[in-house]
Amino acid sequence: MAAAPEPGEPGKGKPFKLLGILDVENIPCARDSILYGSLGSVVAGLGHFLLTSRIRRSCDIGVGGFIVVTLGCWFHCRYNYAKLRIQERLAREGIKNKILYESTHLDPARKQTNGGGSSN
């Protein structure tokens, strides 16, 4: 019998797509953005309903809250993801250069001495 895939590991089954286009399982930040957006929708709609008791306007506020919170979380997460990718790329290049130039005359960490003998 085959073991069930781990929760963090992509499964071999059909991926979950939101509205048929957004693959929530494999796109970074999509899952968190949708979850926070739905929570923002409930909070905004329910809060407006409790304050005003207007059902239709509360639904409109809930949809608006979903859009605003989802987009806000999406852009914040994607910005941090891009920053992390840039930092990883710089670290990878630095490690590659360290390995490449180690123990050579081009090594920036190596002290360059300009005939530093004693002058007696």
UniProtKB/TrEMBL annotation:
<comment type="similarity">
    <text>Belongs to the COX20 family.</text>
</comment>
<dbReference type="Pfam" id="PF12597">
    <property type="entry name" value="Cox20"/>
</dbReference>
<protein>
    <recommendedName>
        <fullName>Cytochrome c oxidase assembly protein COX20, mitochondrial</fullName>
    </recommendedName>
</protein>
<dbReference type="InterPro" id="IPR022533">
    <property type="entry name" value="Cox20"/>
</dbReference>
<keyword id="KW-1133">Transmembrane helix</keyword>
<keyword id="KW-0472">Membrane</keyword>
<keyword id="KW-0496">Mitochondrion</keyword>
<keyword id="KW-0812">Transmembrane</keyword>
<keyword id="KW-0999">Mitochondrion inner membrane</keyword>
